[in-house]
Design a protein that fits this description.
CATH class of one domain: Alpha Beta
Largest sheet: 12 strands, mixed
Strand order of the largest sheet: 4-3-5-6-7-8-9-14-13-12-10-11
Number of helices: 11
CATH architecture of one domain: 2-Layer Sandwich
Helix content: 25-40%
Radius of gyration: 22 Å
Structural class: alpha/beta
Number of strands: 21
CATH superfamily of one domain: ANL, C-terminal domain
Length: 465
């Protein structure tokens, strides 16, 4: 009976195996493997994983049969295109029919040691199960990312993500421990005031969480602790879950607030773990750090046709687990639209790099122009400090079709006079028209009007006129 590979194979570095804390990579073998060799490894693991699905997953047995697909049909990675996509809607339907995980559960319950879930912001949450081997690979993926950011044993890493069922909650805490650093599981549930006090009291050197929470903590620090945020002494600030840390203007604002040049972005999808994308110190796109754990491909969001993984190409990314045991997925549509970079990086990592453009289901169509909220956020971030960086796209009805002008709420800084507000409004509207080729109507609101959150920030709201 085929099973995914041993958790102690060279793909996973265990704590203490490599004593050189100054090395560039957590797992040099996997992170710097030549692309041709990685492709060979992926093909071999893919064939074994498909056999595992056929043997253990009712969900994929049915999907294979409906498509008249057999794992033996796959001789190269390109042959995987014979298999239909897997979607979030299918997972929800399967979970409701056969709780807790659905028919794609491929390991018996007695081997499952952890349950996490999606956030459920677009529907009922989807649960994921992990075997012990799955958690070890998850720890490995987190260690690779944090090591690239400069986190080392002895660092006190405060986890600012939500701990309750979230895939960056408890799994991040155990990943930090796997690296050998000190895990401080404060959690977003502690709110800004409690989080800041923990950071001060444990003398935190690194923090992970959503970009909007990092900005909120910076705003609240002096009020709560009586000191500016840079006085806390953080060396590394990183995280993801939403747009922010990858945008140069916001990144610079966070560097100045926290007093460190080490502000990094992280990206993944809850169902995709242990798949991870993360900055290296060059911060020129996020590396695919786990090509040995998940095969990532690009497709046209509308037609579903595969797109070449070449420099500058854009597309929705799909993934196929290569050795996931509990709840493995094949050709899963994430909805995340990427722009990839394939040129060599100075850090030596060989995984392609990417920037997230947006989500396919968040894309707006304004008189023929495709527009993602993250592009608007990038424009607004460029007007700091006159603008706080907080914004909302206000729709009269759900997208993607939007009649111009596109309505935008933007927070202005405290103490900005009427003339300056008028000039700021005109400047933002002009930049959106010039850079994004759409007409916008900007409503400036006082700082603090759009609220603050410890979790993901909503960039689109629907308010009928």
């Amino acid at each position: 009976m085929p099973t995914p590979s041993s958790p102690l194979s060279p793909e996973v570095v265990m704590p203490g195996e490599l004593a050189d804390n100054g090395r560039e990579h957590w797992n040099p073998v996997q992170e710097t493997m030549p692309a041709e060799r990685m492709r060979e490894l992926q093909a071999a693991k893919l064939r074994r994983q498909l056999e595992y699905l056929a043997a253990h997953s009712d969900f994929y047995r049915r999907k294979f049969a409906a498509a008249r697909f057999s794992p033996s049909d796959v001789r190269t990675i390109d042959d995987l295109a014979q298999l239909p996509f897997t979607t979030k809607a299918e997972l929800r339907e399967a979970q409701e029919a056969e709780p807790p995980f659905g028919a794609h559960q491929a390991a018996p319950m007695e081997r499952i040691v952890r349950i996490t879930s999606t956030a459920g912001t677009t529907g009922r949450p989807v649960f994921q199960g992990y075997t012990r081997e799955d958690t070890i690979r998850r720890n490995e993926s987190i260690a690779r990312g944090l090591w690239a950011f400069g986190v080392r044993p002895g660092d006190r890493v405060v986890n600012g993500f939500a701990l309750s069922m979230f895939n960056a909650g408890v799994p991040f805490c155990t990943g930090i421990e796997h690296l050998g650093a000190v895990s401080v599981p404060a959690g977003a549930e502690r709110r800004a005031e409690g989080m800041l006090r923990v950071m001060r009291d444990v003398k935190a050197t690194a923090w992970v969480g959503t970009p909007s929470f990092a900005a909120y903590l910076a705003e609240k620090c002096e009020e709560v602790l009586g000191i500016p945020p840079h006085a806390l002494g953080l060396r590394v600030v990183c995280g993801g879950g939403e747009s922010g840390f990858e945008q140069p203007a916001f990144q610079k604002r966070m560097e100045e607030a926290w007093g460190t040049p080490y502000v990094f972005d992280w990206a993944s999808t809850s169902d995709a773990h242990p798949n991870v994308f993360a900055h290296c110190k060059a911060r020129a796109g996020k590396h695919h750090l786990t090509p040995d754990f998940a095969l990532v491909q690009l497709i046209d969001p509308e037609s579903g046709a595969l797109r070449e993984m070449a420099d500058g190409v854009e597309g929705e990314y799909i993934f196929t687990h290569l050795d996931r045991q509990a709840c493995p997925l094949a050709r899963y549509r994430t909805g995340d639209v990427l722009r990839v970079r394939t040129a060599p990086c100075e850090c030596g990592r060989t995984g392609f790099r990417m920037d997230i453009i947006g989500r396919s289901d968040d894309m707006l169509l304004v008189r023929g122009v495709n527009l993602f909220p993250s592009a608007l956020q990038s424009v607004v971030d460029g007007f700091a400090p006159q603008a706080s960086g907080r914004m909302q796209v206000v729709l009269a009805r759900p997208g993607p079709q939007v009649e111009p002008p596109l309505r935008l709420r933007v927070e202005h800084a405290e103490g900005l006079g009427e003339a300056d507000r008028a000039a700021l409004k005109q400047a933002i509207e002009r930049t959106i028209r010039t850079d994004l080729t759409v007409t916008a109507e900007v409503e400036l609101v006082p700082q603090g009007s759009l609220g603050r959150t410890e979790t993901k920030t909503r960039l689109i709201v629907v308010e009928g006129r």
